[in-house]
Fold this sequence. Notes:
- The protein is an all-alpha fold.
- Helix content is 57%, strand content 0%.
Amino acid sequence: MDDFELIFTMLGERSTTELHTTKNSKGLSEIADDARTGGNVAAVARKELEKQIGRSVVSKQNYLSRRQAGLKKPRSKKLLDK
């Protein structure tokens, strides 16, 4: 994840939080609607930026290394004994 991906993720999360707070949403369906709308805000902003700069802002890299993120090395898949 690069800077733009982090920014657009934060925009979606913050937009969702503001929608929930402003509308005083109650219940799963209302909160899910807020989340969809907040995510759409970030998606529209990302697509507009990509149109303006002529390239995708989505990357395959991680923003933090696993060590910086406080994660251990990936778990190996273990088979259960039968």
